[in-house]
Amino acid sequence: MRVARHSLLAVGAWLGSILGSGIPTMPSAGWTKEILFVARDLEDQQAVWLPRKIILQPSTDFTEPLIFRFDNPTARTHVFEAPGLFESIEENGVRITRPVRITIAPEESEQILVDRTQITTDARAGTNEPVRYRFYCPLHRADDDTGGTIIIGQ
Ligand SMILES: [Cu+2]
To answer: 1 C-alpha vs ligand 1 centroid, how far in Å?
Structure first.
């Protein structure tokens, strides 16, 4: 029990340092809004994507193409899955959307262009409650873990 509590505190401190580092970031290289997610191994074969909470404000964050980047510094393959979210890709010269389920190999990085059409539709259809999308690694998710959350502000 003592060990478990200690590791929880360590993760919390690590998360705090990530959140404090200014993510989301605006890379100077291009006119995009980039959000960085980093895979983190936990005990008991579990893993999470950090940070665990992202708030997007359409009025400011949707003015440029929205990029999600996934860094996997661990020794295992992880998947970023976010039900309800879609990515925009070009296939045979045609731009299509598909559900966000991205596989990232060990020590690799991937990025996607987020399709905002569905987000906007969800936000319009909703009540006054902000729209939320969960995300997690389906390969290493704990049974009682609800994963991270992307919250769309109003
Ligand atoms: Cu995983």
So the answer is: 24
Distance in angstroms (rounded) separating the CA atoms of residues 15 and 19: 6
120 and 87 in a common domain: yes
Which value, to the nearest 10 degrees, does the dihedral of the CA atoms of residues 108, 25, 136, 95 take?
A: -80
C-alpha–C-alpha distance, residues 150 and 133, integer Å:
5
Using the mean position of ligand 1's atoms as its centre, give its distance from the Cα of residue 117 in Å.
28
Contact predicate 72/80, CB 8 Å: no
Amino acid at 9: L
Number of domains in the chain: 2
Tell me, what amino acid is at 149?
Answer: T
* List of residues 6+ apart from 11 with CB closer than 8 A: 40, 42, 48
pTM of this structure = 0.78
Give the N- to C-terminal CA distance of the chain in Å, as an integer. 41
Ligand 1 centroid distance, CA of 137 (Å):
5
pLDDT in tens, 95-125: 999 999 999 999 999 999 999 998 988 888 8
Both 8 and 52 in one domain: the answer is no
